[in-house]
Backbone:
């Protein structure tokens, strides 16, 4: 909690977030993106899109479509695993399929 509070305070100080009173709990604050915060996030997304476009610029369309399908499947399965059981409580290197991931 202290780490999150410290990071949030820095973002408020930098003008990227603003604190708002929680209407349901006067002791709590809600955080909202400022216009500068929104612009920062959009710029970050644009840089990421540009970077990944450069990474795959020489890939064939067929390869891009296959990667997209596998990535979507992977993300969906990760989300499902977290929803069903929460994050892994054991050492991920001890999984039965570790030789595939190594």
Residues:
């Amino acid at each position: 909690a202290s780490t999150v509070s410290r990071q949030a305070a820095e973002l408020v100080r930098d003008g990227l977030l603003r604190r708002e009173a929680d209407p349901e709990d006067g002791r709590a604050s809600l955080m909202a993106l400022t216009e500068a915060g929104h612009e920062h996030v959009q710029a970050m997304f644009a840089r990421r899109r540009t970077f990944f476009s450069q990474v795959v610029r020489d890939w064939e369309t067929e390869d891009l479509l296959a990667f997209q399908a596998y990535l979507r499947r992977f993300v969906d399965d990760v989300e499902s695993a977290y929803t069903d059981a929460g994050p892994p409580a054991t050492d991920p290197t001890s999984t039965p399929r570790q030789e595939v991931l190594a």
User: Anything to note?
Assistant: Residues 66 and 72 are 10 Å apart (CA to CA). The first strand starts at residue 17 and ends at 21. The two ends are 34 Å apart (CA to CA). The beta strands are 17-21, 29-33.
